[in-house]
Amino acid sequence: MKKNLLLSSCITMLGTLCTAQAAGTLVWDMSFTGTSSSPNAENIVVTGADGSAYDSLTSSFGGGSVTDGVYHSNGSRLTITDSASPLSMCNSFSFVVKASLAGEGTTNWPVLFGLGEANGWNLKINYTKGANAGWGFAPEGYTLSDLTSTPGTVTQGKEQTFIVTVDAGANDGSVQTGTSTLTLYLNGQAIATATLDSSNRTNEKLDTFSLGGRPLNDNNNQTAEFSNAQLYQGVLSAEQIAALSVPEPATATLSLAGLAFLALRRRRPQA
Length: 271
Fold this sequence. Notes:
Layout: H1 2-20, E1 25-32, E2 44-47, E3 57-61, E4 65-67, E5 70-72, E6 78-82, E7 93-101, E8 111-117, E9 122-128, E10 134-140, E11 145-149, E12 159-167, E13 179-186, E14 189-197, E15 206-211, E16 224-233, H2 238-244, H3 249-267
Antiparallel strand pairs: 1-2, 1-16, 3-6, 4-5, 5-16, 6-15, 7-12, 7-16, 8-9, 8-15, 9-10, 11-14, 12-13, 13-14
């Protein structure tokens, strides 16, 4: 009886975890493949929510290389456009980037990645050096308010997870109403926040994304190695952020199942 109750509890726990992670819905998942000193679209693999090919992304490499599933920006950037993007800055969404930093850049504000609209407005993630060192938002076109950031240093040579969430709350939609809350997470910890009011955003499609630099031009690029980028519709839950911020999310699930199995064995009567 106790064994059945324990097994039932473990199954319920796993089910709860899966349910809790349903806040954000995957739009596309982009990774890299092959080896090339002049990468092109053949070095990118993009899948949609159902795991099938997502054919609406167009990539443009400004340089760099791809080796063993990693894009090395080498001081350049990758720009991708999504012709079927369902999102604008009036929506709630989340953007996930996995990157290993390989240099602080030559300027005070090197840009790691960005996302923006066809009209040229964009939101960049960069690193500020000096006394106020830390990661934060750097907008072009948009005017952000209530900006906060957590001072910190650039960690080199280790893959890290950067997640930007834009929460439009009850005003999620195509109408310019209400205020959105922006949050930047680094390895699962919130490190920067900002707000964007309705008078300073449009319903232009959010269709431009960049890795290694800003969407508009080649200034202030951040030398880095990128392994993955994902776009979600909706704000990721705390459980999703935690799962995405570890190297192998599946490993945590397997470990939980393994602990449940060991617990059952320990409770088994000895012959």
